[in-house]
Amino acid sequence: MRITCPVCGERSVAEFAYEGDATLPRPALDASAEDWCVAVYERENPRGPHAEYWQHAQGCRSWLKVERDTLTHAILGVTLLGRFSGRTGE
């Protein structure tokens, strides 16, 4: 699988770290351990197009929102998050 980082261009997935489901709200920092346990471990295993957070950990370290088909692993879109948000990978 290859992901197109909006800053660095197309790269192997080995350079990226999966950082979680982008469709779920995260608990507040002061939420209970039980709330965090539910958010981290009790989740759906979606089939088809899905939004995920990834970090280009071995590259520019940018945070990305990746739209990926979980059946085919096709990358449907990549959006840069944070300070330079709005840039997209092609």
Automatic annotation (TrEMBL):
Q: Which GO terms describe its biological process?
A: tetrahydrofolate metabolic process
Cite the Pfam families for this sequence. SoxD (PF04267)
Task: Give the Gene Ontology MF terms in alphabetical order.
Answer: sarcosine oxidase activity
InterPro entries attached to this UniProt entry: SoxD, SoxD_sf
Q: Which domain of life is it from?
A: Bacteria
The name this protein goes by in its record? Sarcosine oxidase subunit delta
